Amino acid sequence: xRILLVLIPLxxxxxxxxxxxxxxxxxxDQFEDLDTPAWRILSEDPDE
Amino acid sequence: xxxxxxxxDQPLPxxxxxxxxxxxxxxxxxxxxxxxxxTLIIGSGQxxxxxxxDSTAAKVDPTRLERLDDWEAFDRxxxxxxxxxxxxxxxxxxxxxxxxxxxxxxLRALPGIGAVEVDxxxxxxxxxxxxxxxxxxxxxxxxVRLGFxxxxxxxxxxxxxxxxxxxxxxxxxxxxxxxxxQVMMYAVGTYFGEGSMTPALQRYLEIVSMLIATPIxxxxxxxxxVGAFRALAARALTMEVPxxxxxxxxxxxxxRNLLWGSGPxxxxxxSMFVFFLLxxxxxxxxxxxxxxxxxxxxxxxxxxxxxRLEAGVPVAVPRARLEPGDSVLVRRGETVPADGRIxxxxxxxxxxxxxxxxxxxxxVAGERVLAGSINHGGAxxxxxxxxxxxxxxxxxxxxxxxxxxxxxxxxLADRIAGVVVLAVLLLAGAVYLAWSLAGSSDAxxxxxxxxxxTCPCALSLAxxxxxxxxxxALARRGILVSDGGALLALARIDRALFDKxxxxxxxxxxxxxxxxxxxxxxxxxxxxxxxxxAALERFSAHPxxxxxxxxxxxxxxxxxxxEGQGVSGRVGDRGYRLGRPGFAGAAAGPPGEGSLVxxxxxxxxxxIRLEDTPREDGRAAIxALARRGIEAEILSGDxxxxxxxxxxxxxxxxWRARQTPAAKRRRVRSxxxxxxxxxxxxxxxxxxxxxxxxxxSMALAGGASLAQSRAQLVLTGERLMPLIETVxxxxxxxxxxxxxxxxxxxxxxxxxxxAALGLIxxxxxxxxxxxxxxxxxxxxxxxxxxxxxxxxxxxAFGRRPVLDASAARRAEESAA
Lengths: 48, 816
Hints:
The complex is a heterodimer. By secondary structure, chain A is an all-alpha fold. Chain A is built from two helices and no strands. Helices cover 46% and strands 19% of the residues of chain B. In chain B, the strands form six sheets. In chain B, strands 16-28-27-26-17-24-25 form a seven-stranded mixed sheet, with helices on both faces.
């Protein structure tokens, strides 16, 4: 069970990274306007 | 089956039509405006727009295309290469993804443009001007030439505030959610390890849980503590008080048990509690934002540029830069950009945007004009008195926005919730005492469970959510609700009192009767009389002239118009005068509005009576009301004959004519005394007393008018059927709120005794409370789905509503 001594701090670091990533996404407006990117994929543009 | 315009799908006028070539075939368009836009789109290689789009564009107003150079006003004071090189616009007229695609492609093709972001659902376009060759006016002009209407987004408006609120809520949700999952993993470990886990390991897991749960509590849970303190400071009890108390007690007890090394810890319950409560609040906030979005459109009805007179020369400037004391020139057909006083010229202002009055008023030097009114008279110079946010129009707009102070109904709900909360707190205390006296060591745990498991959510959370959902669903239809309680009251009305002019009628004149006069040297027959009148009115910009627009007429010569009095000119070989009786040379003519007299050198030839056009679905709407148990009645200030005629046409049995505002109010009161619940429908300003007295007040506005804000509900558009939709929505909302209350009562009656008896562990209590509140909130959002609009209703959280005429028509057809 001593492996937990390593695993738990590791999971805490991952948690921190996940929260940081989420904060970054919010700051960069990733959660605004969830519809336009979905439509954009469907546009059949010859020059893209 | 008649074909419509290729661009805007409006009916085509008499041939020959202009046409554009698309996909190898000539397509008809209805007007030069649409032709110009379609040509631009197809010519730039984006003809695919017409293949992709799933709804039609609005008809293009050609005058906007004529004044393109005015947009260059925005280039002054623009310093390229500075930090503020983003052009943030609200763009009207985007109605589907294809529009967004079109705008993006067109703007990217302009020189010097960097990134272009288009948000169709929110109606926003953000353009980055990357280098010196890019000018704001180029972007604005291109958007106008494509048929859209751009407006500059004000610096710090409530959209930015909403965005900040949403971002903060998302961050808290993230911390709570991710942390919760982590803490629960450890908790599951301790549950399954019961017995086979060493105490050291157990403590280790508990310590880590505390390290995660504490930030969750302090950061993500902060709103609850802040809310609870604020409530207590105001001597009120809200739902946040027991929540904050439970969180604080649970955390404190858990930390103490951790230090002592024995006793249960509740970090997992705390984390779950915070997360689920935040989730419920996030849903409510999203809906609230959505409902508030439509009121923003008010400001977008004003023109973006104004002609300021600088040393006598008119110069185009952005409207927002007008200062009190500036002189602006308002030409014929233009909208007045700010509140002010006329200093020169005579105007005929159409104030229907503000007052609902369809007929224009004459204003001379020294008199006030309001922002948003349209000048149909000659060019006038106006000295600005109040601009931008201080205009009457803007102030009406803020009055219309919901979410300012909590409406009547919500305050009542808060008071009831307060009583419930007090009961819960006392009960929790009592449970603690009882179990302690009975010698149980779990007394604290049981009290905590009681505190947590009770859910006054049906009142504090689900009811606002239901009202927000209903308001948002109605806003998409162009129905504005400024008071949720009014919506609920609407569900119980049984009488509808209608005003006549502007409410049951459109405020659009049409020819009602043509009466030629016999004793004249060379009299004209009815048809000829009408034709001559139409010929003269072709040259008039007066609103009443619209009544003659569709009548075939020969060409008149030498036509001159005398402001507000009439027109004169020659048709064939005779000279005529048409207008007010005094102008045409007759004695005071027949009473009633809009009677025009035609005369020539030999005397009066006849009179033409104009009347207001009734709304086309009036009869169907009245019948639909009757089917729902609501009786309609007309109260009008007009004369007997027109009112009787309209009542007969619409199938309304009760009507009264020649009513003063005071008389209308008395009628409302007498009905109420008899136990009726009264809905008063008018144009918003002239019926002040009547609307105020009624149980629910509603205003109908023609076109895009939003300013009739004395009323609690405002219907936009030309049809009466939205009234039926509103009543149906109100009844559905009331039903759903009742369902929520019933569920909440049953749940609490079952759960609270169970918790008090010690049958429920805290984390089970959290789960139960969260599930219960989630059920109630999700039930409320059903209202969004019940208004079938062909879109993904739940996915529409957070989107700004867009007035969608085609969907509205579809919904009306299925609702009747």
